[in-house]
């Protein structure tokens, strides 16, 4: 009898944890990352696995922001320096194998559903963010690429820029890696 009650109690606790995990997953909308001192929000539904910044092979005659290719869990992925692509820095001079950037740097792969074998180099992961944690800023009226979404501020006054990975995957400039 005691075993049955213990089993019911265990099942009840597991059901509560599962429900809590589901509700938490609904509240987290973005993966917050930092690159070149800028804060970016990547939709969780469009982001894939996160990898440490490791070995990669450069590809000649490509744009400076296209770092090369790497084997990520058995798949060949193109590596793009996010800040370099967005024009915040000259990638060739800042990303070197011995650079201290590698300690916190991560590669954020695109969700496999987007059918793009690509990963973005970011300098630091900054956790998960939800709409409840951020306040939307008014649109400044400037023309932006289709992959750039809204701007937000967090409770500490830090500005975050939303980037759509699905729109980025279809952006002509992003797909044109030949330099």
Description:
With 179 residues, this protein is of the alpha+beta class. It contains 5 helices and 11 strands, in the order H-E-E-E-E-E-H-H-E-E-E-E-E-E-H-H. A hairpin with a 5-residue loop joins strand 10 and strand 11. The model has no long low-confidence stretch (mean pLDDT 87).
Order of helices and strands: HEEEEEHHEEEEEEHH
Which class best fits the helix and strand makeup? alpha+beta
What's the N-to-C terminus distance?
72 Å
Strand content: 25-35%
CATH fold label: OB fold (Dihydrolipoamide Acetyltransferase, E2P)
Strand order of the largest sheet: 8-1-2-11-10-9
pLDDT averaged over residues: 87
**Share of residues in helices:** 10-25%
Query: Which term fits the overall shape?
Result: globular
Can you summarize the main beta sheet?
6 strands, mixed
Q: So, the CATH homologous superfamily?
A: CheA-289, Domain 4
CATH top level assignment? Mainly Beta
Q: Could you name the ranges where pLDDT drops below 50 across 5 or more consecutive residues? A: none
Oligomer: single chain
Q: Any idea what the CATH architecture is? A: Beta Barrel
Determine the number of helices (DSSP H or I, runs of at least 4 residues): 5
Instruction: Supply Rg.
Output: 20 Å
The total domain count is 1
What is the count of β-strands? 11
């Amino acid at each position: 009898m005691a075993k049955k009650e213990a089993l019911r109690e265990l099942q009840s606790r597991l059901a509560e944890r599962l429900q809590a995990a589901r509700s938490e997953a609904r509240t987290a909308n973005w993966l917050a990352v930092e690159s070149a001192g800028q804060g970016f929000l990547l939709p969780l539904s469009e982001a894939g696995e996160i990898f440490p910044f490791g070995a990669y092979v450069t590809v000649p005659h490509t744009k400076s922001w296209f770092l090369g290719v790497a084997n990520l869990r058995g798949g060949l992925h193109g590596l793009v320096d996010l800040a370099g692509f967005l024009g915040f820095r000259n990638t060739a001079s800042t990303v070197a194998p011995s650079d201290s950037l590698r300690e916190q740097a991560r590669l954020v792969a695109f969700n496999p559903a987007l059918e793009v074998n690509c990963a973005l180099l970011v300098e630091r992961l900054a956790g998960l963010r939800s709409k409840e944690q951020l306040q939307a800023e008014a649109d400044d009226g400037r023309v932006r690429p289709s992959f750039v979404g809204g701007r937000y501020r967090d409770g500490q006054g830090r500005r975050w820029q939303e980037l759509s990975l699905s729109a980025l995957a279809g952006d002509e400039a992003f797909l044109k890696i030949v330099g």
